[in-house]
Amino acid sequence: MRLGRFQLGVRTRDGEGVGFDPALIALSLAITIVCTLPLWLTGALAVQMRAELGFSIVALGGAVAVFRVAGAASSVPLGRLADRLGPVPALRIAAGMAAASGLGIAAFAHDWLVLVAFLALSGASNVLGQTAANLTLVRTVRAGRQGIAFGVKQSALPAGSLVAGLAVPLLALTIGWRWAFVLAAVLALAVAAVVPANRTERYGTSSGASNRVYGRRPLVLLALGLFFGMGAAGSLTTYIVESATVFGFAEAAAGLLLTFGSALSIGARLIAGARADQRGGRHLHAVGLMLLAGSVGYVLIAVGTPAAVLVGAALAFPFAWGFNGVFWLAIVRLNQATPASATGLLMPGGMLGGVAGPLTFGLLVDTFSYQAAWLTAGGWGLLAGLCMLLGRWLLRIDLGASDAAGAPRPAAGTTS
């Protein structure tokens, strides 16, 4: 089955993608959405699910944490699996796992433990889906358009939260929350059905593709940057509505603030991706600056007045939660031979940050205040930006040394 102008698995002589097919980019967006929908739905439908299943708000946080921890634990092996299998089987398996998670929650989640088990499966499907999506974009989109492609793909995260929010009035309050998970499973199966066929039984590395040679120190710093950045961003998306109500917003206005922020984040990912294509390099430098700008937004939210919260959210959402696409573009361009493995290696930093950030934020609110929690989020954002910039600096040192030793030179657009 074909999707777009060409098939996944078409090898090229120069090791780079052969074009820019909107259908394949849409596929990467769709797989990322369906693999995260069980998580977003659990948060959006928490009121109805807690009432029926009888678990606490703390248990809800634990369920979300299990999703991320399961993803972090399986990230490295699933990234390697995606590189070994190729995009076609990996995309289909990820979509199948997402469908199984949705159907499992809809049919069998009558207590918290069963819910958590299927969310763990969803966490693994998210890892496989995202690594396979990154592999797809590297293999099928030419280097000069990969920035916008990754921007579209990473827009799945705020887009998924918007879709989950719509499930509350359309499904949960009409025919029941379980039908939202059924619909999520149907969407996942539909995505699996439209994954295009491969010309080869197994998709291997394109000829000419190679990884740059660098040490462990830059990776550690980049993973730490992702940890702090996603930890702060997780606090933003989790607590902005409740914080806004405490700071004087009406409940409806607080909900609209999240919608407004998610839309800004989607726009920022697309614009940042397009700018990356025009720039051709210095991607991690841009990521560091975005995170530093976003940290200012967290501090403004901590001021606590409605005007400051609005301006702070307008900074934090696009910059502190809009850097992801450019970050992953930089990583896969440095690892063209094994982009899925590189994704899987660094994803645990973001996933564990997504657990630690909201947990720390909640503890700070209980112990001190919302202001203290938002100031801490600003500190995490500052650390994230500094880690990215320092990691880039060390990376450039290592790459210069490897090039001097005769390692492969980068293709166009691979500079960090």
UniProtKB/TrEMBL annotation:
<feature type="transmembrane region" description="Helical">
    <location>
        <begin position="284"/>
        <end position="303"/>
    </location>
</feature>
<dbReference type="InterPro" id="IPR052952">
    <property type="entry name" value="MFS-Transporter"/>
</dbReference>
<keyword id="KW-0472">Membrane</keyword>
<feature type="transmembrane region" description="Helical">
    <location>
        <begin position="115"/>
        <end position="135"/>
    </location>
</feature>
<keyword id="KW-0812">Transmembrane</keyword>
<feature type="transmembrane region" description="Helical">
    <location>
        <begin position="371"/>
        <end position="395"/>
    </location>
</feature>
<dbReference type="GO" id="GO:0005886">
    <property type="term" value="C:plasma membrane"/>
</dbReference>
<feature type="transmembrane region" description="Helical">
    <location>
        <begin position="179"/>
        <end position="198"/>
    </location>
</feature>
<protein>
    <submittedName>
        <fullName>MFS transporter</fullName>
    </submittedName>
</protein>
<feature type="transmembrane region" description="Helical">
    <location>
        <begin position="344"/>
        <end position="365"/>
    </location>
</feature>
<keyword id="KW-1133">Transmembrane helix</keyword>
<feature type="transmembrane region" description="Helical">
    <location>
        <begin position="20"/>
        <end position="41"/>
    </location>
</feature>
<dbReference type="InterPro" id="IPR036259">
    <property type="entry name" value="MFS_trans_sf"/>
</dbReference>
<dbReference type="InterPro" id="IPR020846">
    <property type="entry name" value="MFS_dom"/>
</dbReference>
<feature type="transmembrane region" description="Helical">
    <location>
        <begin position="156"/>
        <end position="173"/>
    </location>
</feature>
<dbReference type="GO" id="GO:0022857">
    <property type="term" value="F:transmembrane transporter activity"/>
</dbReference>
<feature type="transmembrane region" description="Helical">
    <location>
        <begin position="253"/>
        <end position="272"/>
    </location>
</feature>
<feature type="transmembrane region" description="Helical">
    <location>
        <begin position="53"/>
        <end position="78"/>
    </location>
</feature>
<feature type="domain" description="Major facilitator superfamily (MFS) profile">
    <location>
        <begin position="24"/>
        <end position="396"/>
    </location>
</feature>
<dbReference type="Pfam" id="PF07690">
    <property type="entry name" value="MFS_1"/>
</dbReference>
<feature type="transmembrane region" description="Helical">
    <location>
        <begin position="309"/>
        <end position="332"/>
    </location>
</feature>
<dbReference type="InterPro" id="IPR011701">
    <property type="entry name" value="MFS"/>
</dbReference>
<feature type="transmembrane region" description="Helical">
    <location>
        <begin position="219"/>
        <end position="241"/>
    </location>
</feature>
